[in-house]
Amino acid sequence: MVEAVAAGVSTLNPFVDEHQGLGHDVQVRSLPVRGHIQQGDSPGLYGGTREPTICDVEKLKAFLTDPANHRKAQAWAGVLHITTAQIPDYLDRLTPVLLRHDTLVENHDYKDGTATPFNSLLQAGIAVLVDRQGQPTVKCSCGNPLLPFKGDPGHIKVEFRHGNKKWPGYDRDEVTTVRPTARPLEQLALVDVTDPARGVERPVGTEGARDTVFRTGDRHAMPEVAGTSFGEASRLLADAGLAAASDGPELPPDDARVLGSDPVAGTPLAFGEYVTLRVAEGGGGEAPSGSGGGEGSDGPSGSSLATSSGSGGGDSGSPSSPPSSSASSSPSGDSSPDVSPSPSPSSSAPSSSAPSSSAPMSSSSSFVSPSSVSPDTSSEPPPVTRTAGSGPTSEVPVPDDGAGTGTA
């Protein structure tokens, strides 16, 4: 049993009164996914916005460190396996983002002095804080701590109640859960929820002031992944603006040997396009002789299919159809997003100003070409220098400025 949590709907037993304006959800339509599990570093898994701050980390920090709220702070910290003294530093390492998919989590209400866990399906458009492994850890509007969903996302019963009506675009078969990455992340590759042609690269632990932007339609070469492990291939794909996922109930283990890919290495791909990895059955081990060849084919006996998909996919792509060896349109290239601010018990105008860009953090994620980066002009950082695969450039323009009850 999973309780639906709609964007902009107040929680019954929150850690923090939502009238305090800690977070601001938006209304976006959930995007389809290929497979129920996404990795936390998947480019385009999360969204950003040029609107003012979606999550006020400093206000949450002040609340949890106030001696009057010590009992709540103890319960909150206990969920995340930290001490109350560690709360400030922990919050400083989190990054505010918007969900782009209906996402399963283990949520926690505050009842009778304790944190009470319950499974939740968070609607796309809800603002959350994610940790350095890309895992949602806090629901911004109420401060509720979050943990990874522990059930089978393919076998859930979603219950809509307490004002959480079934939202447009809801599909039980198109929900996702996030698996934390093995490596700490330096930055997150987001998609602007109001303009999917605009990508946002956000250093972890920042709230938008150091964002840089890029065109999601720019194409770069598909990296060579044959002969690597699934974990390494996933990192290579993430660095190229592609995301690892699986059609099955579980992702392959990180040490599973990759035999080939479709499309093949060198194929020009845009941000978030699908790639299928063929991995050896039985987990890790050395790749068979000649396993690097035959990419894009059905493969030898004893191999299995694992899908890498652009979780940044938009409505223009067809995630239900298999990828081909030729590049398809970028699934993040929606041209007509339906986005509007969510109803919120807080003030309609967030307190902080729109994010401006400054010098981006150096990182191994290098899918953005120098020509595609377009930081805001409100600050004067040195130009961004990156290494990226080459390929044709798309024609996608970039803006200059940076209560019902039911069961399904």
In terms of topology, how is this protein built?
Layout: E1 2-5, E2 26-27, E3 37-39, E4 46-48, H1 57-65, H2 70-79, H3 87-92, E5 95-99, E6 103-111, E7 114-122, E8 127-130, E9 136-139, E10 144-145, E11 147-148, E12 158-160, E13 176-179, E14 187-192, E15 198-203, E16 212-215, E17 219-221, H4 230-239, E18 245-246, E19 258-262, E20 268-270, E21 275-280, E22 303-308, E23 340-341, E24 406-407
Parallel strand pairs: 1-7, 1-12, 3-13, 4-14, 6-13
Antiparallel strand pairs: 2-23, 3-18, 4-5, 5-8, 6-7, 6-11, 8-9, 9-10, 12-24, 14-15, 15-16, 17-20, 19-21, 21-22
Give a description of the structure.
- This protein has helices spanning 57-65, 70-79, 87-92, 230-239, and strands spanning 2-5, 26-27, 37-39, 46-48, 95-99, 103-111, 114-122, 127-130, 136-139, 144-145, 147-148, 158-160, 176-179, 187-192, 198-203, 212-215, 219-221, 245-246, 258-262, 268-270, 275-280, 303-308, 340-341, 406-407.
- The protein has 408 residues and is mainly beta.
- The chain has a domain at 2-42 and 50-183 and 336-356 and 399-407.
- The protein starts with a strand and ends with a strand.
- Strand 14 and strand 15 form a beta hairpin.
- Strands 1, 3, 6, 7, 11, 12, 13, 18 and 24 form a 9-stranded mixed beta sheet that branches.
- It is globular, with a radius of gyration of 21 Å.
- It is built from 4 helices and 24 strands.
